[in-house]
Specification:
It is a single chain. The protein has helices at about 25-30, 45-60, 80-90, 105-115, 135, 175-190, 195-200, 210-230, 245-255, 265-280, 290-295, 310-320, 345-355, and strands spanning about 1-5, 10-20, 40-45, 65-70, 100-105, 125-130, 140-145, 150-155, 160-165, 330-335, 340-345. By secondary structure, the protein is of the alpha/beta class. The chain folds into 2 domains: about 1-170, 3-Layer(aba) Sandwich (Rossmann fold), CATH 3.40.50.1970; about 175-355, Dehydroquinate synthase-like - alpha domain (Dehydroquinate synthase-like, alpha domain, Up-down Bundle). Strands 1-2-9-6-5-3-4 form a 7-stranded mixed sheet, sandwiched between helices. It catalyses: 7-phospho-2-dehydro-3-deoxy-D-arabino-heptonate = 3-dehydroquinate + phosphate. Its cofactor is Co(2+); Zn(2+); NAD(+).
Length: about 350
Amino acid sequence: METIQIQTASKTYPLFLGHQILDKLPEVIGSVKPDASKVFIITDEEVDRLYGDALASVLRDLSPVKYVIPSGEHAKSFDYFYQCQTFALEHQLDRRSLILAFGGGVVGDLAGFVAATYMRGISFIQIPTTLLAHDSAVGGKVAINHALGKNMIGAFHQPEAVFYDVQFFESLPEREWRSGFGEVVKHALISDESFYRWLQDNITSLQHVQNQHLMHMIEKGIHVKAGIVRADERESGVRAFLNLGHTLGHAIESESGYGVVSHGEAVIIGMIFALEVSIELEGLRFDVEELKKWLTSLGYSVDVPKSLDHKRLLQKMQGDKKSTESNVNMVLLQAIGEPVMRRVDDETILSLLAK
């Protein structure tokens, strides 16, 4: 089991990474929250079906309580946030209680927001079960969705630890692999051309990722995320670079209906669009067609869904939390590893969407 220290302005906490390390979880809880009065697990139906008994077994001495939400992006809502809060109150959690977010990005965001707001903030541990969560579980951004925008209601609330056992990947459907790998590609594009080329050379199928390749790309992605979070915890500067592809990606998710297009797949389309804008406005030298060909071979759709209206997408992009004064701010690239924030005019966005 490897330990990576995640440093932010408000807190430093460990991320534990390994394969088949679930039995070490009680030891981790004891080290980071030795005075926990109660343990509250928030998970989803699919994760609970596959791994709920295993988690209950290793935590039997802690007598945890558990709330299970439906699987899928639609559960990251005010209704389920309210239900989790009600459950916590009914079971008399107090300020020394500990929440375990056991699942993918949806569970992590929802459970983290519950922890951030219950009794004005209690401790939680992220136990991610998906590749996507290597990004979302690090950095303390927690939120729920609103019909008018993704992740618009939330907080910054750092966990006590992240406990990342990649054995959970063995049950991931290919769609979840694609969703998570989209964020890996993002980390490469904003940080390191050699990492981007390594991914192209070594990842030729998401159904058969060799274990050493998996561990390398997860560790590399975590270090990219951790370095940016260390420099800018609350997204006042460079942390915004982690949003490459997200401005259009979030709009696609919202317009399609949350869960219809997975987060990572929407981000891939958004990244391709951001690269095209970068070529137009920043003079980026980049072979977008080569990228599209590689991603298509991995099972991605690389085009904006034809059913979505471009003007409505623009409206959603204008309302995205990364935009100001109804202008669209986008993360663009001057080169691989050289991201910048730019305000992009409506005409440029609509003309490139129409290509």
